[in-house]
Design brief:
With 168 residues, the protein is mostly beta strands. The chain has one domain: Jelly Rolls (Sandwich). The chain has one helix and eight strands; from the N terminus they run αββββββββ. β4 and β5 form a beta hairpin. It is elongated, with a radius of gyration of 25 Å. It starts with a helix and ends in an 8-residue tail after the last strand.
Length: 168
């Protein structure tokens, strides 16, 4: 029993050193740019039909309401593979972002992988609308996979710290 108490006491003493910290914790200082929100919006689709088909999606990147203008950085990784069939046009994916009823970004891909950086300044909350339209098929005579797209978007909202204090 004494051995168990000695081991438990040694563990507690060793953990006590981990709980203490000599460094000071700091809040953000006035004027410092800080990350206040982050989020993701991801979509993908693979066509399994022999004839052409369309798919669409509308979603929102919801930004928390801020009383002052913020900066929003969006990183979009968009991959697309649409084969060229003999009987109809090649498929595509159209990816569009709108904010405050204004298109801020749009692209159309049919065979590539692209990474985009979209930066907005002086944003005051609301929503960024993501609209995806796609048309594709699966060529059953080809060993290649059916048409597909993958859209991975990450957004970060940065704000300048106005009411921050240093904590010791």
């Amino acid at each position: 029993m004494k051995k168990l108490m000695v081991i438990a006491l040694a563990l507690l003493l060793s953990m006590a050193g981990c709980l203490e910290s000599d460094s000071e914790t700091k809040k953000a200082e006035v004027g410092e740019i800080i990350l206040v929100q982050e989020g993701w919006d991801n979509h993908s689709y693979q066509y399994w039909n022999a004839a052409p088909m369309s798919v669409g999606n509308i979603s929102m990147m919801s930004l928390e309401n801020h009383t002052i203008g913020c900066d929003v950085n969006i990183t979009l990784e968009l991959s697309a593979y649409f084969h060229e069939p003999l009987l109809w046009e090649q498929g595509y994916v159209n990816y569009t972002l709108t904010y405050d009823n204004e298109t801020i970004f749009t692209t159309v891909l049919n065979y590539s992988m692209e990474v985009y950086q979209i930066n907005l300044t002086n944003v005051s909350g609301g929503n960024i609308t993501v609209e995806i339209q796609s048309n594709g098929s699966d060529d059953i005579t080809s060993p290649e996979p059916g048409d597909f797209f993958i859209a991975l978007a990450e957004f970060e909202v940065y704000d300048e710290c106005y009411d921050c204090e240093e904590e010791s």
